[in-house]
């Protein structure tokens, strides 16, 4: 209502301004308080008899001119003519007084509010046929025409219409401005909505939580949404007040789709539901576990189903380990009945290796999770796993977390066995290196020599002169503990629990498999000795005593374990060494050489660095064993066996080219 009143007042003021400005261009302000005979040339005559005549009355016949008195639209005026009260003219009305030539007029006008206007004039010849208009407080001389007042009214109406049109245009401009603001606000709200929905999507994907930024974004969207509703209501009310309902309906129809999208969007309620505990943050259980949202688990899985394989064939604890959930998830699982030692899994790249939940947690390297698992009594290996299997597991597992000192410290502090054999391996490699003896090359008689010829077999004949280059050979037969250190705790020996006894039950193939692995670990080129190298070393090389039947003595009991003094293998180095410092070249276990075996090989052997026949079904064994007589322990004795032959008296010692 107030707005309507303001609008009407604006129309009237504008029309009045237009009239005043137009009148100012036509009215001649009369001199104030003019005395008769001084302000204009006066013609003598009698004072007129004043009588008001309404503007719409017929023009008085014979009147020389007319005096037209106009009151302003804002107030009535009191009129005094020739010092006599002439009457009162209502606001916005006018009166006419007929005049004769030479009439002297003294006019006094008052609005009753203290505003007084006095003027005087004498009707002259030049005034014939005119209206002398006094529009309080100004005088206008205009020609007298029959339709003058009618035209003035039309002009006034035209001005009023112009003022009304101008006001209408102002209203239209005002509405257009409001429409622009509403459109801008809609764009802003869509931006706010997009920003909020982006944050909500991130929350549901597990990339974020309900942070202060999220809450501020929600509040901004809601505030802007309320502000838009207020703007639209004010716009609608203004349009009605301006009688511009059609314009309002057109605009509201244009923005209806956008308004509906905004007003109907309640995605923000997701945040309220989460805060009230009525909805999960995540879209699904997998996202909940990836984002470590323990509070979401109950929305997706019943507590009595937590140990079922429900996520891609995996149980929750396994999946939580795969995606590296934090302690909140695992604590929730343990509190709801999931066992800390349940399940686990094998590696895709190595199906033989199994990781318990604790081992998997160590790979993830979250020390808080590891501490929680240890607190709950987690095992690092399955209870049924053998020691050899544990070592095999551990070697692979340590490649995945062994470099993390904080993880290793936690396991060791809680008495978990994390010895993967690295220490034993390093010790074994050092022991092998230190045991290698340099044998300087030279020439010797290989086979049955004259000194021992009476007790030789045909396979040792004929004796031949052979030259060999310098090489290295191990001081000892390969022991069980070195074999186990290289072969991941495997020990094929029949006589176990004797780490320093020679490893036995070794075929020629097994010996070469060991050497292949050893060379990869040590980055060296160990090998089996050739038959010629073995015999040259057993004789003592350049230090040979040709009277010796055995490696280092004529008495087997000094240097050899054989069937008369042993019924099983003995620790290496327990007897006297030969001149090169080599032990057990006679007895204890028979030792494989690299050569193929041929009984008559000496008859056609090469004489420089011989390597045996090109091909045979057997490989050479030398030195005799604890199972055989002292005769088999002689330096020149030689045997042949298939490549896969083994028993509890077959072993080997290592050699290496210089």
UniProtKB/TrEMBL annotation:
Position of the signal peptide: 1-25
This protein's UniProt keywords: Signal
Annotated TM spans: none
Cross-referenced InterPro entries: CTDL_fold (IPR016187), Sulfatase_Mod_Factor_Kinase (IPR051043), SUMF_dom (IPR005532), SUMF_sf (IPR042095)
Keyword Signal attached: yes
GO molecular function annotation: formylglycine-generating oxidase activity
Domain Sulfatase-modifying factor enzyme-like: start-end pairs: 435-655
Domain of life: Bacteria
Name of the protein in question: Formylglycine-generating enzyme, required for sulfatase activity, contains SUMF1/FGE domain
Organism: Hydrobacter penzbergensis
């Amino acid at each position: 209502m107030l707005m309507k009143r303001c609008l009407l007042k604006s129309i009237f003021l504008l029309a009045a301004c237009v009239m005043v400005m137009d009148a100012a261009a036509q009215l001649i302000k009369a001199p104030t308080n003019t005395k008769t005979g001084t302000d204009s040339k006066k013609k003598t005559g009698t004072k007129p008899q004043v009588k008001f005549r309404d503007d719409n009355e017929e023009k008085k016949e014979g009147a020389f001119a007319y005096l037209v008195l106009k009151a302003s639209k804002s107030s009535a005026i009191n009129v005094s003519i020739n010092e006599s009260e002439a009457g009162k003219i209502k606001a916005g009305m006018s009166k006419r007084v007929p005049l004769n030539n030479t009439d002297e007029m003294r006019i006094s006008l008052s609005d009753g509010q203290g505003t007084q206007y006095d003027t005087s004039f004498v009707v002259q010849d030049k005034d014939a046929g005119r209206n002398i208009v006094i529009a309080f407080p100004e005088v206008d001389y205009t020609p007298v025409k029959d339709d003058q007042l009618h035209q003035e009214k039309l002009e006034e109406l035209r001005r009023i219409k112009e003022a009304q049109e101008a006001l209408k245009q102002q209203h239209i401009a005002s509405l257009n401005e409001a429409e622009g603001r509403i459109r801008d606000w809609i764009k802003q709200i869509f931006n706010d909505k997009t920003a909020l929905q982006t944050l909500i999507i991130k929350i549901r994907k597990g990339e974020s939580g309900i942070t202060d930024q999220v809450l501020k974004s929600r509040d901004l969207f809601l505030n802007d949404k309320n502000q838009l509703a207020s703007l639209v209501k004010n716009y609608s009310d203004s349009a009605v007040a301006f009688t511009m309902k059609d314009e309002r309906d057109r605009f509201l129809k244009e923005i209806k789709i956008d308004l509906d999208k905004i007003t109907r969007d309640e995605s923000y309620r997701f945040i309220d539901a989460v805060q009230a505990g009525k909805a999960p943050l995540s879209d699904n259980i997998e996202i909940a576990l990836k984002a470590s949202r323990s509070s979401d688990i109950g929305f997706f899985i019943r507590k009595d189903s937590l140990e079922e394989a429900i996520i891609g064939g995996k149980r929750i604890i396994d999946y939580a380990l795969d995606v590296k959930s934090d302690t909140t998830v695992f604590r929730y699982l343990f509190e709801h009945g999931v066992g800390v030692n349940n399940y686990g899994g094998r590696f895709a790249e190595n199906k033989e290796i199994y990781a318990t939940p604790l081992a998997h947690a160590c790979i993830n390297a979250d020390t808080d999770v590891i501490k929680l698992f240890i607190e709950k009594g987690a095992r690092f290996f399955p209870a049924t796993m053998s020691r050899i299997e544990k070592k095999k597991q551990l070697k692979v597992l340590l490649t995945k977390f062994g470099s993390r000192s904080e993880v290793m410290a936690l396991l060791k502090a809680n008495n978990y066995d994390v010895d993967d054999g690295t220490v034993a391996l390093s010790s074994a490699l050092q022991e092998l290196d230190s045991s290698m003896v340099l044998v300087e090359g030279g020439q010797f008689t290989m086979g049955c020599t004259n000194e021992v010829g009476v007790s030789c077999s045909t396979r040792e004949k004929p004796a031949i002169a052979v030259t060999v280059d310098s090489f290295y050979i191990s001081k000892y037969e390969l022991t069980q503990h070195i074999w186990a250190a290289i072969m991941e705790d495997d020990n094929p020996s029949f006589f176990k629990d004797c780490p320093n006894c020679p490893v036995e039950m070794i075929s020629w193939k097994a010996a070469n498999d060991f050497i292949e692995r050893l060379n990869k670990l040590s980055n060296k080129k160990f090998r089996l000795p050739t038959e010629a190298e073995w015999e040259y070393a057993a004789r003592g090389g350049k230090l040979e005593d040709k009277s010796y039947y055995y490696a280092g003595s004529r008495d087997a009991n000094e240097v050899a374990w054989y069937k008369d003094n042993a019924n099983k293998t003995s620790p290496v180095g327990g007897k006297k060494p030969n001149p090169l410092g080599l032990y057990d070249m006679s007895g204890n276990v028979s030792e494989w050489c690299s050569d193929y075996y041929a009984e008559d090989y000496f008859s056609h052997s090469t004489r420089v660095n011989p390597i045996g026949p090109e091909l045979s079904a057997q490989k050479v064994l030398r030195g005799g064993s604890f199972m055989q007589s002292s005769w088999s322990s002689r330096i020149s004795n030689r045997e042949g066996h298939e490549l896969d032959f083994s028993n509890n008296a077959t072993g080997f010692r290592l050699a290496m080219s210089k």
